[in-house]
Write a structure and sequence with these properties.
4-stranded mixed sheet, magnesium
Length: about 850
């Protein structure tokens, strides 16, 4: 695409810095306007041409064009003639010998001018010897030279360098290939090995532009190929695959180009805040989540295709470049399949006319732990079969039998399942899986697409069967050893989110799909119902553990009533742990683990006692008191003193805390010199999955706000909080806090928090400095706070429920509103789930009565105003 004549004229006439800036500004506006009108390849070539002309003109302006020993060489993406709107401009100034001071000064002026034009440049000045030496040490530099292009100057020196790049023994084909493969593996590892992060890097993610470029780089080095098309004549690509790669490349270019325009800078990561504008620029619409979903689904499917083609071609290259790879032993698996080294290969592609043989291939992978990959020619065959399918593989009875054999195989849901997912066989088998392939999840929990999240969940369940995980997941590992039908757990995992993106309750819709699957695959009615029940209730255990008081016998009884049997409890617990761990790498921690384990054990006990004989609350309190008191007496404390302190506490205190917490609180109070004064205790070690903070103080209106402000100012995350009042006007605060990493608070930090809380209690007027450091991520979701005011079982109390993004200082803001309206906080339950806070407060007005309708309206409005201001 030729540059517009006006751009050429503006550039030709430019003399002052402002002229060049005006020319650049006009050109960038032209790029934006043309984006929706012509192929993106034309535009990225046009920017490269514009930069060519600009550099060459400035080369003349600063009198560098007349230096006979100087060559201006474009390298990297610029060398390929591909520049997105804000891509870096990499060039090499090649000299025959070290330049003189005068030339260095001209070069400095040349480079400074480019900086003044706000261009992101990467440049170096090298002799041939220096360039060769750097090439020897740095494969990335060697790669950039492969794509070099002479812009202006000494062509003889450039040709010498180019010949050296291809013909010298430095970075021979085999070394170069191994270096690029290793580079790719490290890059993929940084992306957690998946292309399906919800904020993918268009260049670096598996299936991104770098994977395509790696193919081209190896082809250039080994085959001297200048284009992908030349790989057809070498027998590595079919015409269809070549067209597919071009289509994928153009789609990735389009998305990256739109991302640059949306971000207004060089940006490769498709962050949430850039996705809506990028989707609009790409023509997916401007209807918010729906348009983003359409764009991202397209992107993820493209990346999946690129990743598969990349693996296939690199495997072919390996056979050509590394001769020893062809000397691997061939072991026959059956009459249709054989193992070649660590890969499985089909002997005759026509075998897949029997569709069930597709699953037999994965059965062999399950049978043979030595198999880690699929042979490249077999990948090609699978791709061809996939494209030619006229229906779903589950329509074939033989496929259904083979699929079930795989699900029931002890190793079937390990590497075999991963490769099935990776090579599109799940989508070919289950029509519902195609719907969630590349499906975004618009919440603050999930870090992956629905299909990748589900794949990770299945992998987590599979890990329960390994001995290496017993220490970390003892209950799950023990449960699966006695589980009569683990395949039902796997299938519940496959279907738990399979209805996402369809509208409606995905749990209920997924349960319907599970029943249909069970009938088609001839499961018994009871087995089908169990799968469907697990799908329908897969959120029940996590919601109960994280939002309700699991020390309350009524909560346990209600949960046990819904679970009904120990068998269902076992399955649900294993599914829930696997689900949370697969949601987000940062979401699982000891606190979540402790909550779920305690809920499991409490419910197991309730089911064994019998739901018709629930443990009375008074019996529970009596048991806790007995165990806590025994601990204290064993440590030398007087029973009468213990009873004296406990006489001040209401029954809800003893139901809210474990016997370990009761004894810890009481020991702290027994050691206080004056119980009329406030005091603070911070646990030295983790307790119940986190660092515990206990605050005892006379009641005052703004105390809660001050305490949460202190904790927030110390960069600690409040996972859980409770507020209880005593019979004699004192208040007890209990917090569970964690580091940002999810670990318990380090001892030095714990002491800092204690000092801060002591100071806040001793000097109520002292100002607390709270540094705002709000993550950009929060505004990307546009989630408005949800505020609900309800009646409380006590007629003189009101319940306030708040669901909001967990921005720094959220609790402080809420407490400030309560303080401004003279509310008394009688109890609170603060829970952080991922990056969303779900907080419940039991309050009364200044006269210790339930809130009137007028007071509720004012508080609702004040909270909305305060919290909306913080999330905008």
């Amino acid at each position: 695409m030729a540059l517009p004549n006006k751009v050429k004229k503006l550039l030709s006439d430019a003399e002052q810095l402002t002229d060049y800036r005006d020319c650049s500004s006009y050109f960038y506006k032209w790029l934006q306007n043309e984006f929706s009108k012509q192929p993106v390849g034309n535009l990225i070539n046009a920017r490269a041409e514009f930069i060519d002309r600009l550099l060459i003109k400035l080369f003349h302006v600063y009198d560098l064009a007349h230096e006979p020993d100087l060559a201006l060489i474009a390298v990297g993406g610029y060398g390929r003639g591909e520049l997105h709107p804000y891509s870096d401009i990499d060039f090499l100034l090649l000299v025959t010998e070290q330049p003189s001071e005068a030339i260095c000064e001209k070069i400095g002026q040349f480079v400074t001018m480019l900086w003044d034009l706000n261009l992101e440049i990467g440049h170096s000045v090298r002799t041939i010897e220096q360039a060769i030496e750097q090439k020897r040490e740095d494969v990335t530099f060697a790669t950039s030279l492969l794509e070099s292009r002479l812009l202006f100057g000494n062509h003889i020196e450039y040709e010498k360098l180019k010949a050296h790049i291809l013909d010298t023994p430095i970075w021979q084909s085999d070394e170069f290939f191994l270096a690029k493969v290793n580079e790719q593996q490290l890059r993929h590892k940084k992306c957690h090995g998946t292309a399906y992060n919800l904020e993918p890097n268009i260049k670096e993610n598996p299936g991104g532009l770098r994977d395509l470029q790696t193919i081209i780089w190896v082809a250039k080095k080994h085959f001297r190929a200048e284009t992908l098309q030349e790989l057809i004549s070498h027998g590595y690509l079919t015409h269809e695959e070549y067209q597919e790669l071009l289509e994928c490349l153009e789609n990735l270019w389009n998305i990256r180009f739109a991302l640059h325009l949306a971000a207004g800078r060089s940006e490769n990561r498709l962050l949430f805040d850039h996705q809506p504008l990028a989707a609009d620029l790409l023509g997916f619409g401007s209807d918010g989540k729906a348009s983003v979903e359409r764009m991202m689904k397209r992107l993820f499917r493209i990346m999946s295709r690129v990743r598969e083609l990349n693996q296939m071609l690199l495997s072919y290259f390996e056979q050509s470049i590394l001769p020893e790879s062809n000397e691997q032993a061939v072991i026959e698996l059956d009459r249709n399949f054989e193992r070649v080294g660590h890969q499985i290969r089909v002997k005759n592609p026509s075998v897949f006319f029997r569709r069930d043989q597709l699953f037999v291939l994965f059965e062999h992978i399950a049978d043979n732990p030595e198999i880690t990959h699929i042979y490249p020619s077999t990948i090609r065959t699978i791709r061809q079969v996939r494209r030619r399918l006229l229906g779903d593989l589950q329509d074939y009875a033989a496929c259904r039998e083979a699929f079930l054999r795989l699900v029931k195989h002890p190793n079937g849901m390990g590497r075999a399942f991963t490769l099935m997912h990776k090579h599109g066989m799940l989508a070919a088998y289950l029509p519902q899986w195609r719907n969630i392939f590349g499906q975004m999840q618009f919440d603050l929990f999930h870090a992956y697409t629905v299909d990748e999240h589900t794949h990770k969940l299945i992998n987590n369940i599979y890990q329960y069967f390994g001995k290496d995980n017993v220490a970390e997941f003892p209950i799950c590992c023990e449960i699966v050893t006695r589980m009569d039908k683990p395949e039902l757990l796997y299938l519940a995992g496959i279907f738990h989110d399979i209805a996402k993106g369809r509208g409606g309750d995905h749990s209920e819709l997924g349960a319907v799909d599970a029943i249909a699957f069970a009938k088609l695959h001839r499961f018994s009615t009871s087995d089908g119902k169990l799968i469907a029940w697990l799908v329908s209730n897969h959120l029940l255990m996590s919601v109960t553990a994280q939002r309700k008081d699991i020390n309350d016998p009524d909560v346990i009884k209600d949960f046990a009533t819904r679970v009904k049997t120990e068998r269902q409890l076992d399955y649900l617990y294993c599914l829930t742990v696997a689900d949370i761990r697969a949601t987000n790498d940062n979401l699982w921690n000891d606190w979540k683990n402790t909550l779920l384990r305690e809920l499991y054990l409490h419910t197991q006990r309730a089911l064994r006692l019998g739901l018709e004989n629930p443990m009375d609350q008074r019996d529970q309190i009596r048991d806790k008191k007995h165990q806590a008191k025994q601990r204290l007496i064993n440590n030398g404390y007087d029973e009468n003193q213990i009873d004296l302190i406990w006489s001040r506490f209401k029954a809800n205190y003893f139901t809210a805390f474990s016997e370990q917490q009761l004894s810890w609180h009481t020991e702290h109070l027994l050691n206080c010199d004056d119980l009329s004064q406030p005091s603070v205790a911070v646990s030295n070690t983790a307790m119940h999955g986190g660092t515990q903070i206990f605050v005892y103080s006379p009641y005052s209106g703004g105390l809660f706000a001050r305490l949460v402000s202190v904790i927030g100012s110390k960069k600690a995350q409040i996972q859980h909080a409770q507020v209880l009042t005593t019979r004699d006007g004192y208040v007890l605060f209990s917090f569970v806090v964690l580091e940002v990493s999810g670990d318990p608070i380090a001892s030095a930090q714990a002491q800092s928090i204690k000092r801060g809380l002591d100071q806040a209690l001793a000097d109520p007027k002292k100002k607390i400095r709270f540094k705002k450091n709000r993550s950009q991520r929060f505004k990307d979701f546009n989630i408005k706070p949800k505020i609900i005011l309800r009646p409380h079982p006590r007629k003189d109390r009101s319940l306030i429920e708040i669901q909001a993004v967990d921005i720094p200082g959220l609790l402080t803001k809420i407490a400030e509103v309560f303080q401004a309206h003279l509310l008394h906080i009688h109890a609170a339950r603060i829970t952080t789930v991922g990056e969303r806070a779900e907080d419940f407060f039991v309050v009364s007005n200044n006269e210790y009565q339930a809130l009137t309708d007028e007071e509720q309206a004012k508080i609702h409005q004040a909270l909305r105003k305060k919290l909306n201001a913080e999330t905008e």
